[in-house]
Design goal:
Distance between the termini of chain A: 36 Å
Shape of chain B: globular
Low-confidence stretches of chain B: none
Oligomer: heterodimer
Order of helices and strands of chain B: EEEEEEEEEEE
Order of helices and strands of chain A: EEEEEEEEEEE
Strand content of chain B: over 45%
Low-confidence stretches of chain A: none
Number of strands of chain A: 11
Number of strands of chain B: 11
Radius of gyration of chain A: 14 Å
Helix content of chain B: under 10%
Radius of gyration of chain B: 13 Å
Largest interface: A-B, 30 and 28 residues
Number of helices of chain A: 0
Number of helices of chain B: 0
Helix content of chain A: under 10%
Largest sheet of chain B: 6 strands, mixed
């Protein structure tokens, strides 16, 4: 099983709303990622969690707040977003074996976010 | 940061033709991954490469990890309409748990 599950699939929110994106994997992976992707562009890394600790924050605005409650779950809390934050948000996971081979990253299907 | 140059940016081919695309990096990678992405969906892993010189196949797809560890290519043989999509390469360095992505190759296949 190489499944990463993201919910919801679509989300429309106003600029004053608070919402959360959820991601789950049961592959025993210890690294989980959030990416933002605009149309026809590659995924752009936002955050990396390694063993449930935030290891990389790519200077993401504080209106995006990640959370990793346990090794299988990853959330992205959204507050006071701007219309330019509308994008496909992708979650991914990998084994987290720095310095070792065979570290494969699997993606979820994404959440299509529209900010009005 | 790391830069991956992926080419070509887009391709328009006839069904049945073979396709080749490649990625080059300014740094040495210890893992190369190739993904395909359909509109509105997440990237799906096609092939993973771990050793310099490694050549791996997955059906009609073949990918190679370059000897210099700074490049990789993906070949698709006998293309079919369902091959349409955007193909991304991704690489990872030895020390950091971070994957760097190429800009993508958009493949169009005419029946």
């Amino acid at each position: 099983d190489t499944e990463v599950t993201q919910t919801p699939k679509h989300l429309v929110m106003g600029m004053t709303n608070k919402k959360s994106l959820k991601c789950e994997q049961h592959m025993g992976h210890r690294a989980m990622y959030w990416y933002k992707q605009k149309a026809k562009k590659p995924p752009e890394l936002m955050f990396v969690y390694s063993y449930e600790k935030l290891s990389i924050n790519e200077s993401v605005p504080s209106r995006f707040s990640p959370e990793c409650p346990n090794s299988s779950l990853l959330n992205l809390h959204l507050h006071a977003l701007q219309p330019e934050d509308s994008a496909l948000y992708l979650c991914a996971s990998s084994q987290d074996r720095e310095g070792r081979a065979k570290n494969i990253q699997y993606f979820g299907a994404g959440t299509r976010l529209s900010v009005l | 940061g790391q830069q991956l140059n992926q080419s070509p940016q887009s391709m328009f081919i006839q069904e049945g033709e073979d396709v080749s695309m490649n990625c080059t990096s300014s740094s040495i990678f210890n893992t190369w991954l190739w993904y395909k992405q359909d509109p509105g969906e997440g990237p799906v892993l096609l092939i993973a490469l771990y050793k310099a010189g490694e050549l791996t196949s997955n059906g009609r797809l073949t990918a190679q990890f370059g000897i210099t560890r700074k490049d990789s290519f993906l070949n698709i043989s006998a293309s079919i309409p369902s091959d349409v999509g955007i193909y991304f390469c991704a690489g990872r360095t030895f020390f950091f748990n971070k994957f760097y992505f190429g800009s993508g190759t958009k493949l169009n296949v005419k029946p």
